[in-house]
Amino acid sequence: MAEGAEEGPPFQLGKPRFEQTSFYGRFRHFLDIIDPRTLFVTKSRLKEAVQLLEDYKHGTLAPGVTNKDLWRAQKIKQAIIHPDTNETIFMPFRMSGYIPFGTPIVVGLLLPNQTLASTVFWQWLNQSHNACVNYANRNATKPSPTSKFIQGYLGAVISAVSIAVGLNVLIQRANHFTPATRLLIQRFVPFPAVASANICNVVLMRHTELEEGINVMDGDGNIVGSSRIAARHALLETALTRVVLPMPILVLPPIIMSLLEKTSLLRSRPRLVLPVHSLVCLAAFGLALPLAISLFPQMSEIETQRLEPEIAGATTSKTVVYNKGL
């Protein structure tokens, strides 16, 4: 029994290792997904992992292979290979590369004394990185026109840049602020800019779901129908996640840094400000990302009676589930 506990739950192909109904289970699941160690997996190790899963699928596993080996192989494959296209995802755009490649952008967004040009540059770079990550990890089961991604990207860039620039101009023109207060308020500008761009991106990329609806399933995974009401809920939950996600990443570091900059250590050694700022951003990003994406389950539940009459009539289930998307 002790050996079984050590090597984790019995392996299930394509299923998450941790229970998705609890926050802690989802948190551990997403820690696995964003684990940056998978960025260093060699081609031969990836090939071994894929082969091991193929052997499991065809019932030809070599003796001595444990559940732990199978879970590790699945983690490697899922981190590197797109589930729908079976192609290798470019390293900076993998979910496991989101923190290492995204942190320098967060540091740039939160730099104090931003000029107009630097504000525009960092907001554009952030939305470009997000768009590439979204595209690389998209659901490719239903072919989606590239024009939709371009539309979502342009909408996000325009809203992020215009809000960041607009707020900065307003703060500069506000005469009743002292220079210190102005600088402090300016540090919080990236959050509303990024949050509104995220909402804009979700709406532009997924507005067709509001017209066509999304599939809802009963407890056994059978598709009951396509619901526009469920689509509205899915979009709302995704938009909320996208607002909660940047909050700790873009709000905590300015608060922490404004306190640290008052210490004698950083006052006497101004060269340390940027390295300390970078570490604070990395810590905030590393903790906030798995916490925020674990808030809502990937599969959301809704009471059948709250949906369209034709869907309520098509099943005996009291509740149905739908995939809310990321």
TrEMBL record:
The chain crosses the membrane at residues 152-171, 183-204, 243-260, 272-296. It is a multi-pass membrane protein. GO terms for biological process: amino acid transport; citrate transport; mitochondrial transmembrane transport. Keywords: Amino-acid transport, Membrane, Mitochondrion, Transmembrane, Transmembrane helix, Transport. Its main location: mitochondrion. InterPro entries: Mtc. GO terms for molecular function: citrate transmembrane transporter activity; monoatomic ion transmembrane transporter activity. It is found in: Mitochondrion membrane. One of its GO terms (cellular component) is mitochondrial inner membrane. Belongs to the sideroflexin family. This is Sidoreflexin. It comes from Anolis carolinensis.
